[in-house]
Amino acid sequence: MRTVAQRDGGRRRVLLSTVSSDAHTWNLVFLRMLLEEMGHEVVGLGPCVPDRLLLDTVRRTRPDLLVISTVNGHGRLDGARVIRALRADPVARDVPAVIGGKLGIDGDEGAAAARALVEAGFDAVFTDTADTALIGRILGALPQRAPEGRAV
Amino acid sequence: MTRQSPPGPRPARPGAVRRPGPADLGEAVARAAREGLLVVQPRMGMAGPDAMAAGLRAVCSLPHPTVGTLTLDSYTRVGDHGLARAALAAGEPLNGFPLVAHGPHTTARVAAAAGDRPVQVRHGSALPRDIFRTMVAAGLSASEGGPVSYCLPYGRTPLAESVANWRAATAEFAGLSAERGLRAHLETFGGCLLGQLCPPSLLVAVSLLEALFFVQQGVTSVSLSYAQQTDARQDVEALAALRMLADEWLPPGVDRHLVLYTYMGVFPGSPRGAQLLMDRSAELAVRGGARRLIVKTPAEAVRLPTVEENVAALRSAARAAGRRAVGDGRVPYVGEVDPGEVLAEARALVEATLELHADVGTALTRAFAAGLLDVPFCLHEDNRGLTQAAVDGEGRLRWTRTGRLPLPRRTVPHPAPVTAARLLQMLRYTADRHDLLALEAADDPDWAELSGPGPAVRPPEADPEPYRIAVVGTGPRGLSVLERLAARLAERPAPRPVEVCAIDAHEVGPGRVWRTGQPRWSMMNTVSGEVTIYSGPPDDGPARAGAGPSLYEWWRDADPEAAAPDECAPRAVYGQYLAHALDRIERTVPDGVLRLHRLRRTVRTLAPEGGRYLLTLDDGRRLRADRVVLTTGHPLPRLTPDQQELASFAERRPRLTYVRGDSAIDMPLDGIAPGSVVGVIGLGLSFYDVVAALTTGRGGRFVPDAGGALRYEASGREPLLVAGARSGVPLRARGRNQKGPQHVYRPRLFTRERVRALRRRGPLDFRADVLPWLLAEVELVHCATALQRAYGPDIAERFRQEAEEAVRKGTAGAGSSREGRGPQEAVFGAAVRCGLRGHGPVDLRRWAWPFGDRVFSGPQAYQEELAALLRQDVELAAEGNAEGPVKACLDTIRDVRGVLRTAVDFSGLAPRSHREDFLGDFVPMVSRLTTGPPLVRLRQLLALLDCGLLRVTGPDARFTADPASGRFQVHSPRVAGSRTELDVLVDARIPDPDLRRADGDLTARLRDQGLLTPYVNRGPDGGEFATGGVAVTGSPFHPVRADGRPEKGMYVLGIPSEFTRWFTQVGSGRPGVWGEFAADADAIAEDALHGAHDGTTATPLTGVLLGPRWHTALTAPDEETNP
Known about the structure:
The complex is a heterodimer of chains A (152) and B (1123).
Chain A lengths: L12 E5 L8 H12 L3 E4 L6 H11 L3 E6 L4 H14 L8 E5 L8 H11 L3 E3 L7 H8 L11
Parallel strand pairs in A: 1-2, 1-3, 3-4, 4-5
Chain B lengths: L24 H10 L4 E3 L7 H12 L7 E4 L2 H4 L3 H10 L8 H13 L7 E4 L6 H9 L4 E4 L13 H21 L5 E4 L11 H17 L4 E7 L4 H18 L5 E7 L9 H18 L3 E3 L12 H16 L17 H15 L5 H11 L16 E5 L5 E6 L17 H8 L1 H13 L25 E6 L3 H16 L6 E6 L47 H8 L12 H16 L7 E6 L3 E7 L2 E6 L4 E4 L1 E4 L10 H11 L5 E3 L17 E5 L3 H10 L6 E4 L5 E4 L6 E5 L27 H8 L6 H26 L1 H21 L9 H11 L10 H5 L10 H21 L5 H11 L1 H8 L6 H20 L4 H13 L2 E3 L5 E5 L4 E5 L8 E3 L1 E4 L14 H8 L4 E5 L5 E7 L19 E3 L23 H19 L9 E3 L1 H8 L8
């Protein structure tokens, strides 16, 4: 993946979700505000997103980036399951996807959970020490996926 | 299998567990209350039965009254009992006790560990039926939740479904418990909802409504929750109100008590701060009249607490509760507060809801659907999401948007808009405050140490190569970036010292336009109360980055006689304020963290070199910077061919003078002889400045005459001014200011959400997509103001709601605004129905071009009509920008600039529409009406017209060079006999930035190097609009190079990026408001400081683990692209 010129000022479509068992929403409220202030378009799915709904929405909206934020401690299990389903889908498999938040129940499960999630198919995992605003840097480096699905 | 139940006590159902279960919760609490003891309870849930039982045992064996808790896990909450079972079997950790999966026998066994103390099941589920059934079968009868509070904050279940689930499950729960000889107890969770940032009146209302719901299903023992918020006094008011409403509404036979939740948000980081908060919550419970307290442990911020931590929290809470008078008792008693406001609001919400239906559950569903109940920040689809709340300056929660809540009186919304940064701040408010308070309580008087709860300043590293940021141009924009750099470094110093080189050719701090030495006739156009350069309001500490006075507040101290919040200060005064601010910013952080170098120099060259930038100054010095911020302000591009022609004409004729467009204070006007005839091109703000320079600047005075108008007393050294422009009419005055500095307008129709939704479809057509909504908003304010003036605020408010309704209906069926009535017509129609008389709909075009196509018989005729028009404008302006319909609705256009930017910036508009509809038509039209000077300038103009020192030529004025006469001349084709010959021609039009015509300055050089490129708006269909603005990325606004890639070490902010972005010529922020001015500067400051923290130029993504697809792409330096 090359960094590509941004002729559109860098506005991307982000699909913001959480995992199926996670009912927390402040992280989602914050991320939506942050991403919108950065100038991006956010499609949000709210809390407790069933795997099926997430997959269908990725297929339908063709986001430039999928952001899964989860803080209930089940992120490792649920995140791995849903990304595997996405990567197995012929239409959704290419979507750039990152996950972050509190990924295990113990405070220091971060590193192991992060590795497992990358192996399961995430392009990046934001551990607890990462600055959320780095998501802007990642978005800046992504090519825009035009509605037809081509990289512009 | 059903059968008739015999009368009398029922035998236990087959299969149910028979053993003495835990105590009745209501009774246990009542008993403790009689002994004057607070009941304390943790949240606790372990997956395995043995661990859970051990936890219960530890809690229930404490010497003071406690309640044991079984907190269920997330899978059980959503009804995924299969997944819970699978996780148990696989030994995977769960975040709670999977009660249903374990079944009633295991659960009963576990619950027995509580002995004779009550056990409550806490679960958070919108489908509680299985949980209740298993509970009761296990002999447990106390739980919590609610159809609203366990639905809206936590899941996707439709509210109606949750209500139906809860209705059936609660009724069954009450019945099943009774059959077992138990009394079902339900605690409402409605006093918590999202846990933070909800004004207490809504929490009280929902808590009460859920209690009523339980009672309606047959529950006879309830507790009403309320969660501790940000301000103890406000919390005590809420508890008092909750008790009063419970007494009013619950039937007398229903057992009830209040339960307080220790703060549910982010916990203080320091042990002392956490302890203080926990102690406060116990105090609050006792003094507020709650009988039970659900504690938190500090550990919960990071992970689930251990049993030991829970027990410690319980002990500590009980101790604190015992010490009723703790120190100076910061928490007031119930009897000491006035719950009137909270009570009235909560009562209004409850009554409006209950009016909707006799069944409380149905009433709740309908209330949320109608927005009569609306939880701020709640993402659930059945929550309307029209409300918003914030923590105000005193720490109380206030509504910032009230949506459709039926609140008893018009609540004044708290001004600061909630941005992501502010949201985090507010979410952390309680934690940060308690960390600070804990320090104070430890007798630490030194202000410097209290300046932040963050880590102490680290000593500079052994190898302190400073990280250098160059700010090129230090007017307000450059200063705003400096301010945010200092504020951020004060919160979080970098590992190495940061050096900022503040470079300005004129005056470091004020910059060219605002320099302190300029003449006093040069005035600002914004009132001093609305101007600030600090990103935050002043507090008890000294003025510094992030917390400083507005221009008025500073001016008042510096010059109490002259200062007034609704007056415009001289520009030189703003300059002094900026210079003072720079001094204060410098002192915000010690030298080891941030060092400021002021350089009154011009930057000649700037080139990237080895990951940094090499700058050379006009004195030959060179400096290397890691980051460069270009805030160079108003440029002076090469003259256009027309302007060049006029300039050359004058050059060849010594008697003539041509003054090119620029800031008036930089124009060479002193040489203009008294009595000479001076043509002035343009009737905008710069025209007003030029007039001031050549009248009061020449020693003349304006004095008030008997009628309240002004009269001009000439000095005799003035020239004769002949002004003209296409419009023929000078910029209209702004309405007399009636809005406080913290006024923030919240649009109802022309909203950011609507614009974002429109933008999702692709580039916009300004005329078809954007303008109708803007006009609708303007019309809304116009009619509302007129209706308020005629009939009062209630009618005005009713009109607003009807207008919104009319617009909603109007656009529900129609596709685009081209079909049928547009939203503006719908709004106006609603106004007429509400009784509006004597006003037509807003017609911006007619207001901007009042003379249409008319021709005039001669200059005198035109002057008279013009003077009449300006007098009328003066009257309209005197009505004020809040009470006068015309000026109020025009002011709205300024108020919604941010929304317009959302539509326009970064190719929001299709190229043709951007060029023609927006820049070509709309912007000039509204500039005439909204960007004008304060009212006093119009009065001054009238005085000058009256005494003949000023003449306005007429519409479509043309200034030309006449070789035959050897002089300049001006004439208007619509005013007969208007031709006038001129010795001097002053172009009073501030030049638009045009990178393509940059000449001989740093900007030109950077363009030639390919570091700066002109912005081209390219549409998807191939259309193009080439502009003269500097092309920049979205925040943080890196310039886009000639090769199309962003230059990541540089930033461009302000006027040079006009056209890429709209209306960048903003010279200040608004006090108390974190707006775009501060946000733009902060984005640059944050990005620029990344390098200081990481120490490398290609900053790695710290804390982010990358997968193989991205690993090389994101960590390697930028690669070459294939063309």
